[in-house]
Write a structure and sequence with these properties.
The protein has helices at residues 132-136, 260-264, 302-306, 363-371; strands spanning 21-27, 29-31, 37-39, 45-66, 72-89, 92-101, 106-114, 119-120, 140-144, 147-150, 152-162, 171-180, 197-204, 214-215, 223-233, 239-246, 272-276, 317-327, 340-349. The protein is mostly beta strands and 372 residues long. A 10-stranded antiparallel beta sheet has the order 1-4-5-6-7-19-16-15-12-13, with no helix packed on it. Strands 11-18-17-14 form a 4-stranded antiparallel beta sheet. The chain has a 3-stranded antiparallel beta sheet with strand order 8-10-9, with no helix packed on it. The model is unreliable at 362-372 (pLDDT under 50).
Length: 372
């Protein structure tokens, strides 16, 4: 599939709001009545698959109530610059947004729209004429008598090439939140048990590799994944950087690693993988990988990128980010699904001296925030 051209021009008022600006591109895919497409670069025509617009969101980027009499509430509505592109691949539409926010955050999201790929089943589909519905329910949600929606996954993957502060010498730093037993206080005359407390631990990942620079979010082991410039520190001594944070619940691959699909799409095993930058490692997958489990020469393969074991200390780094959802189909997905999706953000992490979106605060609050 070519996600860049299997689409039509965005529809004003449906895909993008009034006042949006549209960007022209060229397509040489001619869609056919049968649903297929014919590619002919000599017949390229212009179309408008991307728009950009400013969005006033329905909540604040910061808000606080001062405990005064009378109370004073202050806040700043969140204004976001949105770049949107939509690609239709057969029955699904993929709505991709990149949002630039006033505090320096960059959010990427993909929403899945369209209609499900359903299948028909009958008693002839089972051996010895068994219970077709019971058999089909092992793999699908039963939507109507004889109509099933197979379980499937949607995984959106991105490449983020980091040069923190314009420097190509960055390091992957992992911060973990844990608990530690509290030692007795020497100031207490009679030692007594104390409750455990939360602690932070930091480590710099030295080299790339599966299990070394690959990560799956675990709510039982929270923390932060940051790309930092160790040579540039804030006044507090913290290295400047950006963090990769998941903005939604995201699944990974449930099939075993040796499955042909997983071997063809190893990025589906991780939420985050970090490698050293190489120009020839352009993308996460390749048209030369056709889900047959065979490794084609020159194919784009994330596990192959990771196998080099190159140093990640003060290097030019690339983050490969994948966020997915298992689509357990429901009856309400007929005739069209209600759009659902996944998201992640790149957030400034000690990159700025304070919240850039708070620059318009009164001096009293700005000074208090800067000193806290």
């Amino acid at each position: 599939w070519s996600l860049s051209m299997l689409s039509a021009s965005l529809e004003p008022g449906v895909d993008c709001p009034s006042g949006a600006t549209y960007f022209e591109a060229a397509t040489w895919y001619q869609l056919q009545e049968t649903g297929s497409a014919v590619a002919d670069a000599t017949r390229a025509v212009p179309f408008y698959p991307t728009c950009i617009f400013e969005w006033q969101e329905d909540h604040t980027i910061w808000r606080h109530m001062e405990n005064t009499e009378p109370p004073r509430v202050r806040g700043l509505g969140r204004r976001t610059l949105v770049v949107r592109s939509i690609a239709t691949v057969a029955n699904y539409d993929y709505i991709t947004d990149v949002k630039f926010r006033e505090d320096g955050e960059i959010e990427a999201s993909v929403r899945f729209a369209g209609y499900i790929e359903a299948r028909h089943y009958t008693d002839h589909d089972t051996e010895a004429g068994g219970d077709a519905a019971a058999h089909e329910s092992l793999y699908s949600s039963l939507l109507r008598p004889g109509l099933a929606g197979p379980v499937h996954c949607h995984i959106a993957a991105f490449k983020a090439d980091f040069d923190i502060g314009g420097v190509r010498a960055n390091t992957l730093r992992v911060t973990s939140v844990g608990a530690s037993d509290a030692p007795p206080s020497p100031r207490e005359p009679f030692p007594r048990p104390r409750h455990p407390y939360k602690v932070l631990s930091h480590r710099d990942v030295e080299a790339e590799g599966i299990g070394a620079s690959t990560f799956v979010a675990d709510p039982r082991r929270p923390g932060a994944w940051t790309i930092v410039d160790r040579a540039a520190a804030s006044p507090a001594g913290s290295p400047r950087g950006y963090a990769v944070t998941l903005g939604s619940f995201a699944t990974t691959q449930v099939l075993p690693d040796e499955h042909p699909f997983v071997r063809a799409m190893p990025f589906s095993k991780y939420h985050l993988a970090v490698t050293a930058h190489h120009d020839h490692e352009r993308r996460l997958t390749s048209p030369y990988v056709q889900y047959d489990g065979e490794e084609a020469s020159g194919a784009q393969d994330l596990d192959r990128f990771l196998s080099d074991g190159e140093s990640l200390l003060d290097a030019d780094l690339v983050a490969w980010i994948a966020v997915g959802r298992e689509h357990v189909v429901r009856q309400e997905d007929l005739p069209l699904v209600s759009n659902f999706g996944v998201a992640f953000s790149l957030q400034p992490w000690n990159f700025l001296p304070w919240n850039a979106a708070a620059s318009g605060l009164p001096p009293s609050l700005s000074e208090a925030g800067a000193g806290d």
